[in-house]
Amino acid sequence: MTRRRVSNPLALAVLSCLSERPMHPYEISTTLRTRGKEQSIKLNYGSLYSVVESLQKHGLITSRETTREGRRPERTIYEITPEGVSEFEDWLAELLSRPVRDFTSLEAGLSLMGGLPPAEVTRLLEERTVALRIDIGAVESTQRVVADLGLPEIFAVEDQFRLAMLTAELRFVKDLAERIRAEKLGGTRLWRRIHELRGNGMSFEQIMADPVRHLGEEARAFLDPQKEDAPN
Amino acid sequence: MTRRRVSNPLALAVLSCLSERPMHPYEISTTLRTRGKEQSIKLNYGSLYSVVESLQKHGLITSRETTREGRRPERTIYEITPEGVSEFEDWLAELLSRPVRDFTSLEAGLSLMGGLPPAEVTRLLEERTVALRIDIGAVESTQRVVADLGLPEIFAVEDQFRLAMLTAELRFVKDLAERIRAEKLGGTRLWRRIHELRGNGMSFEQIMADPVRHLGEEARAFLDPQKEDAPN
DNA sequence: GTCCGAATACTCTGTTTCGAGTAATCGAGA
DNA sequence: TCTCGATTACTCGAAACAGAGTATTCGGAC
Q1: What is the helix (H) or strand (E) element at residue A10, kind and residue range?
Q2: Does residue B6 reach within 7 angstroms of strand C, measured from its CB?
Q3: For B143-195, how does the pLDDT look when each residue is reduced to its tens digit (9 = 90+)?
Q4: Cα B124 vs. chain centroid, distance in angstroms?
Q5: Within an 8 Å CB–CB cutoff, is residue A191 touching chain B?
Q6: CA angle B186, B192, B197 (to 5 degrees)
Q7: Counting beta carbons within 10 angstroms of the beta carbon of residue B143, is it exposed (0 to 12), middle (13 to 18) or buried (19 or more)?
Q8: A-chain residues near B107 (CB < 8 A)
Q9: Exposed site from A7, B17, B123, B189, fewest CB < 10 Å?
C-alpha cells in the first residue's frame, strides 16, 4: 500500500478542481491548462481518465450525471465527496510541509558524470548555463505579464519557486564548470588521467588493479579500506 | 517512441556500472548502493530486472554467461556493447547539457496551495523549514565525512548539488511564509476572505458569481477579460 | 455553401513501475 | 551444533502510465 490510495499528483489537481465545482474530466484538463498548472503537474489524457476512475473507486469523488450533447461522446460529470475533501486537504498539507526526495535528472547526471572526461563535462555544463538563462528569461517574462495584468501574485507562486530553483541551479552549474576547468574540484586530475588511459586502450579493471601506479599517489584513497571503493 | 529506447534513469546507471566491467544485476544494485547512487537514482528490484532485460532487447548490453553456485538462483552476467557505450555517453551528455522540466512535489503543492487557508499554509511552510534544516544538516555531515576520509570531491558532487538546491528551497520557503504572514504577497487578503466565506458555508461558485461584492474591489481582476479567470 | 483546421471528449493498448514475496545460504552467537 | 536473522538473488502480478488514435462538431475563410 503506497501511503495514498491514489498517488499521482494529477489526482490532487483533480480534487482541487472538483472542490470548486463539479466538472467532467475534459473540463478539468482545460481548466488546469488555462491556469498554467500543467507547468507544475504532469497532465496527459491517459492518466487523467484512469486517475478519475481510481478516485471514484476509492470513494473520493462520485459521478453525478452523464450528459450528451448531440452525437458528441458522453460527458460524465463528477463531484467531490466529503472524504475527497479531507483527502485533498491532508495530501496538500503533506506536500507543503514535508520535503520528499524528488529524483531530478541533473542530479542523476551529476552522480554519473565521471563516465565522461572532465573537458567534455565542462563544455556540456557551459552549454547548460546558456539554456538555463533562456528558461529563466521565459519565467521572468511570464511573471512580468502577470504583474502587468494586475493578477494577484498567489496565482503564480509556483513560477516564483521555479525561478528561485532555476537561479540556484544556474549558479551551481556555472560554479562547478569553473571549478572543474580550474582543477579546483578535488579529484579532477585523477578523473582526467583515467579517461586518458582508457582512451589509450587500457580497461577500467586494469587501472584499478594498481591505481597508485597508473594514477599516482592521489589514487591511494582507492585502496585504503579493503581494496574496492567508489569509482564513478 | 520516447526519445530513448529505455527511458528509466536506472538504465543509465546500469550502463555506467557495466562500462567499468561485466556484472550481474544484483551486483549492480549493491554497487550503486554502496556508492550512494540510490540517493540520486531511484533503484528498486522490479525495475532493475526489467530495465536490464529491456537493455538487452535493444542490444545495448549482452548476457555473457550464466553461473550458479550451489543451489543459489542463477546469476546472469551482462556486459556492455559498443552501442551501449555510445548510448551511455550520448544520454549522459544530454542529461548534463539540457535542462528538462522535472515535476517536483513542492511545486505541485505550491500551485494548488490556494486550496488551504493562508494561516495554515504559513504554518505548514514553517514546519517545512524545520525539516529542511535537518535534511541540510544531514547532507553537510556526509560531505564532512567524505572530506575527512580524503575521498575526492567528484564522488560527491551530486550531494553538493542537492545541498545547493535544499538551501535555495529553504530560503524561498522561509521568505514565502513571511510574505504571506505579512500580507506582502499580492492576493493574500482575497485568499483569506474566500476561505472565511467558505467556512461560513458559502460555495465557491456563489462567491465567484459576484466576486466584487463578496470580496471587494481587489477581486475586480477576476472578471475583467471574459468573466472566468484563474482562481486557485 | 463548403472545406479545413482546431477544439471537444474521450478510448485503447502496450509498456513501465512497484514492491511484496520466495527461497536458498551464510555467519554469529547460545 | 543448532538456530535465527541478515544477505543473496531474483520472480511475479497488479497497478499506473503514456500517448497515439478516433470520432464528432464548430468556426472562419474563400
Answers
A1: helix A9-18
A2: yes
A3: 999 888 888 999 999 999 999 999 999 999 999 999 999 999 999 999 999 99
A4: 20
A5: yes
A6: 140
A7: middle
A8: 40, 158, 161-162
A9: A7
CA distances to B170, B188, B219 from B181, rounded to whole Å, are 17, 9, 20
Strand C bases contacted by the protein (CB, 7 Å): 8-13, 16-21, 23-26
pLDDT in tens, A79-109: 999 999 999 999 999 999 999 999 999 999 9
Instruction: For residues B56 and B59, give the distance between their C-alpha atoms in angstroms, rounded to a whole number.
Output: 5
d(CA B133, CA B130): 5
For residues A182 and B112, is the Cβ–Cβ distance under 8 A? no
Which residues are within 8 A (CB) of A182 and not within 5 positions of it... i.e. 6 or more apart?
none
Helix (H, G, I), strand (E, B) or coil at B65: strand
Q: How far is CA A114 from the centre of its chain?
A: 22
**Cell numbers 458522453 correspond to what residue?**
A74
| Cβ-contact A139, A160 below 8 angstroms | no
DSSP annotation of A217: G
B4 touches strand D (CB under 7 A): no
8 Å CB contact of A154 and B187:
yes
CA distance A128 to A140: 18
